[in-house]
Structures are given as structure tokens and as C-alpha cells.
Amino acid sequence: MKQRWWALLVVLALSAMPRGSAAQGISPQTHDSQGSATGLGQNYPNPFALDTRIPFTIGDYPACSDPGRQYRVSLRVYNLLSQLVAIPTLEAGVAGPGGEPLDNVLLTCNQFVGYWNGNFLNRDEQIPRGVYLYRLEVDGRPYVKKMFKK
Fold this sequence. Notes:
- The protein is mainly beta.
- The protein has a single domain, classed as Immunoglobulin-like (Sandwich).
- It has one helix at 2-15; strands at residues 30-31, 37-40, 52-58, 70-78, 84-86, 89-90, 105-108, 110-116, 130-138, 141-149.
- The protein has a 5-stranded antiparallel sheet, with no helix packed on it. Strands 4, 5, 7, 9 and 10 form a 5-stranded antiparallel sheet that branches.
- A hairpin with a 2-residue loop joins strand 9 and strand 10.
- The chain is elongated.
């Protein structure tokens, strides 16, 4: 009986996820009331074995009509029971040195990549295989996608 409930939970969680043709790149951008656009990309590799990267765009990049504006950004990984599993870090690159946990940080208009080593939050052990959800929150607005651990 417990396995049936688990299977039902997985089916419900997967059916609630948005579907679209942009499964491999940055998701279609959404515009807020101030005209800025944000997009969340599909993690790669997907499925992943050890670590993964999560691309996302903040603001109306590449136009960046207000380059000085800062957005409050968080990126988190959850299991299907909505339990926090990890907080990825900002990967080094165009936006700066990286390595900073993407938890309530201020970022400007640009493209970014979050890096996650596949470990549980604050532990040195890999997560088990399965389906996970990652959630980008930009100025309080959520964007969610799923990923697979093999």
C-alpha cells in the first residue's frame, strides 16, 4: 500500500510540472510588470550521475534596459516530498568569481549558471537516484523544473 501512495505522489508531482517545447534551453521568458524577463533552463547533464549545472537568465538579458537593477535570487533543490535537498552555488564566469550559495543573493541582469555537486545539504553524501525539483525564485516569483539523478 505504501508503494501505491508513493507512485501516486510521483505521478501527481510530475503531472503538475509545466510542459513545453523549450525543455533543453532557457525556458520561455516571462515578463513582469516592469518589463523584465527571466528564464530558467534545464539542468545539464540530465539525468546526472554526480554533479549538474542549472542555467538561468535574470532580467531582460541581453538588452538589459536597466543594468544597475538588482534582483533578489534564490535557487533550491527539493525532493518530491518538498524537502530541501540542496542550495546550488553560483558558478564562476561572466558574472563574477562564483562559489557563493544562491540563497537570497542580489544579482544584476545577466545569464548565470548554478552548480550542484549532487550532495545533500550540509553533508558529504550523494543523494539517491530519483526525480528532484529545482526552484528559482527571482524577486519572489518562482520558476520550477524537474531533474533526474541516475
